[in-house]
Amino acid sequence: MVLWGASIGEEDLSPAKIADLKQFDLLLVRETLTEAVLNQHGIANVKLCADGAFTMVKEELPLPEGWQENNTIGFNYSPLVWKRNQASKEAAQHLIQHILDTTTLTVALTPHVMIPGNNDYEMLVAFYERFQDHPRVILLPDTLNAIQYKGYIARMRFFIGARTHATIAAYSNYVPTMVLGYSIKSKGIAKDIFGFERLVLGINEIADTEKLIQKFEELKRDETELREILTKEIPRIQSMSYKAGEYLATLA
């Protein structure tokens, strides 16, 4: 029995869960923060890999009207983040207004998960309606699959996102990225790439418009450095993704 690609925080554990996890033959964890938590509780058979999404291929569809090549920023927001901090929606919209007011960037509202009760697209429609008269705001459709969204994200200059796999799509294509409303997986993934939790904002921070703007300005300022680090580190992270298969093979 294998748990593959897990992220588990201290807040996720209970004595019963710890007892269950100790029964697994192999625990493949995707970042070092989870590895440390499980080791602290004496859970054996823990192996560090990386999220398989880092190795997922991309499909590049034609660019939509309004897209600026090399000058488009993706923006992803999720119902999960909104439910945890409803004030974050207004702050995020203020951030978009700041981007429009202070840069020439096109903002591409980018859904990534569309399931009943947890639909990014429904949230982003409200964002689009607020900015629909602005020529530099576009909304990507809700009909694409993961490799097609990755194809769009790969061609962005920057990315701001709440969904972990949307931010992985950006990281894995060397796109400087800011993460909204972290969980342990977001913190751990950023730490393993950059050495610390760089440009990852907590769930309470994302309702603070000034904090969002400050971090966006940091994202812009460090654009070249961030891209250089990603170009260097992502091949290492991708090789860690493939380690999962090697560890799985030891059970055969």
Q: What are the key terms here?
A:
252 residues; 10 helices; three-stranded parallel sheet; alpha/beta; six-stranded parallel sheet
Spans of at least 5 consecutive residues with low confidence? none
Classify the oligomer.
single chain
Rg, rounded, reads 19 Å
Mean of residue pLDDT values:
95
Distance between the termini: 12 Å
Output the strand order for the largest sheet. Answer: 8-5-4-9-10-11
Helix fraction? 40-55%
Helix/strand order, N-terminal first: EHEHEEHHEEEHEHEHEHEHH
Number of strands: 11
Provide a count of the helices.
Answer: 10
Return the structural class.
alpha/beta
Largest sheet: 6 strands, parallel
State the shape: globular
Estimate the strand proportion: 5-15%
Overview of the molecule:
- This protein is an alpha/beta fold and 252 residues long.
- The chain contains 10 helices and 11 strands.
- The chain has helices at 15-21, 32-40, 79-84, 88-102, 120-131, 146-153, 164-171, 184-194, 209-221, 223-249, and strands at residues 2-6, 26-29, 46-48, 72-75, 106-109, 114-115, 118-119, 137-139, 158-161, 177-180, 200-201.
- The strands form 3 sheets. The chain has a 6-stranded parallel sheet with strand order 8-5-4-9-10-11, sandwiched between helices. Strands 1-2-3 form a 3-stranded parallel sheet, with helices on both faces. Strands 6-7 form a two-stranded antiparallel ribbon.
- Helix 4 crosses helix 9 (209-221).
- The longest helix is centred in the last third of the chain and has 27 residues, at 223-249.
- The chain starts with a strand and ends with a helix.
